[in-house]
Amino acid sequence: MRLRAVQGVLTIVLLALIVGTLAGCAARAPSGSGASMPDTHVVQRNETLYRIAQRYGLEWRDLARRNAIDAPYLIHPGQRLRLRGAARSSPPSAPQASSAPSSRSSSSGSSGSGSSSSSGASSSTSSSSSSSPSSAPADPGGWQWPADGQVLRGFSSSGTRRGLAIGGERGDNVRATRAGEVVYAGGGLVGYGRLVILKHDARFLSAYGHNDELLVSEGDRVQAGDTIARLGSSGAERPMLHFEIRVDGTPVDPTRYLPDR
Cα 3 from chain centroid? Predict the structure, then answer.
């Protein structure tokens, strides 16, 4: 009788341990691995790709590939991200390429004198037609150059970092090219070093990479000409500013909008 009682107690203890272990596993399961994860997520203000992926238990690089988002991994409020399924081959709302080259590219692509910028400017002119959105908005004006140095490399539609490389000395001022809101300030994007991204309006963004020091934070409002960073070499082989202008998330030749020097 006593042996049976002991066996009964052991059985109850073992069942309790099994149930507790299963409950613990369920509690630790990633939020993105269960059926409760939605198919899509609508981006909210100040959200980043990394934070959204973390929320659903996903790997942020997989989320970027699934939605055809390449470096510098820009997203905007109202954008709908797919949380499930295979990677897309093209952005969900990528503008079609324009067949007409920019009228400003040939005249201003060589901004910044010197032979170091001539080849880049030539590349900028030849590639502007393949990277310009077909519905590119009219120039809103008010643009300023973000730094005073020479253009070391012009715009090219190939590669992942499509913008201008502007030389300078370490510690030079990096300025906002137009008024806007800081939507990213950090060093989490590989290949860009310390990066600032400004949102100017519903369609225009500008990006400033390789800084040594960031002087703004996410959510800050800045005016054209405000100093937002110090030029440096984070993520680059020499002190330089990597500068991009994007329309609807697509990189365009910045010399289409920047004033002649």
Answer: 68
Q: What is the residue type of 209?
A: G
- State how beta strands 180-186 and 194-199 pair: antiparallel
Per-residue model confidence as pLDDT tens digits over 70-93? 766 778 788 899 998 887 754 433
- CA 41 to chain CA centroid, nearest Å: 17
- Asked whether the predicted pLDDT for residue 189 surpasses 80, the reply is no
Closest to 155 (Cα-Cα) out of 235, 244, 216: 244
Is the Cβ–Cβ distance between 232 and 170 less than 8 Å? yes
**Residue bearing the bigger pLDDT, 12 or 51:** 51
Pairing of strands 180-186, 221-222: antiparallel
H-run or E-run covering 251: strand 250-252
Contact criterion met (CB below 8 Å) for 172 and 161: no
How large is the average pLDDT for residues 204-212? 94
Closest CA to 131 of 95, 90, 177: 95
Residue 251: strand pairing partners: 246
Q: Are 76 and 44 in contact (CB under 8 A)?
A: no
Question: How many other C-beta atoms are found inside a 10 Å radius of the C-beta of residue 129?
Answer: 16
Distance CA 248, CA 143 (A): 18
**Percent of the chain whose pLDDT exceeds 90:** 35
Of 7, 95, 81, 91, nearest to 38 by C-alpha is 81
Token reading at 38:
């939605």
Q: Are strands 173-175 and 194-199 parallel, antiparallel or unpaired?
A: unpaired
- Give phi and psi for 89, each to the nearest 5: -90, -15
**Nearest to residue 201, comparing CAs of 252, 135, 146, 245?**
245
Q: How many residues does the chain have?
A: 261
